[in-house]
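task queued by scheduler; priority normal; single chain, no ligands, no partner chains; default sampling; output format set to structure tokens
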Amino acid sequence: MSAKLIDGRSIAEKIRNKLRSQLLLRSKHRKPAPKLAVILVGEDPASEIYVRNKHQACEDVGITTLDYFLPKTLSQKKLLTLVQKLNKDKSVNGILVQLPLPKHIEADVVLEQLDPRKDVDGFHSFNLGRLAQERPQLRPCTPYGVMLMLEEIGQRFKGKEAVVVGASNIVGRPMALELLAAGCTVTICHRFTKDLAKQVGRADILVSAVGKPAFIKGKWIKKGATVVDVGIIRLPDGRLTGDLEFTEARQKAKWITPVPGGVGPMTVAVLLKNTLLAQELQGKR
């Protein structure tokens, strides 16, 4: 048995094609294109790549970007001043603060200062709270992207055992909320979890978001499971890999995401989707 690959690139392209059509129609009706402000503090190489990819994706579908590339010495006070300025700017529909931020800046403080209706990453407590109440608006990009992928392959959720490895506010916790809302019985595993192998082995749907290469062993995977690898790590030789022992896991799973080409493109596609939604939400004020 060899698992089928979940092609995140092709699923993301479907989303982008739909968005492109929607934005083209809006332009024909003389409605302004959504505008996304992107803030990058410092010169982290990985973050620079992510920002460049997001910029290109926005340009591809017709979203305007406003880029702020700021020095790593920028004070938290000045960053908060910029966020407040963008909150008040009615021409700006979405604000993205690229993480990680330099150590002297408290990311939680900055994210909480965002106007929730412009929080296209879905990290603000308002948006996470709505997700927890099953009344989502701007949903965290990666977890929502995972759900769209799974829906595309016809994954059933109700009554399934779902295991999420990793409990971050960015992926793990909102991923668990997404799966719970879909009808799964959800277990979240973290650094204090005992017998991780046993927990993973119960999963009909496994989502790993740890960021450690080969952390999830292939022999742990339940036969016929759907396995989603959110981890993305660059090895010393330059190759990208995920959390899974991929070759071994593929022999047991029914569906599996590759790294790269799995979750990554979906995260960017949902960011674009959220930016258009943010514009629509602001129009209803």
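post-processing summary
- Residues 8-28 form the longest helix (21 residues).
- The mean pLDDT is 96.
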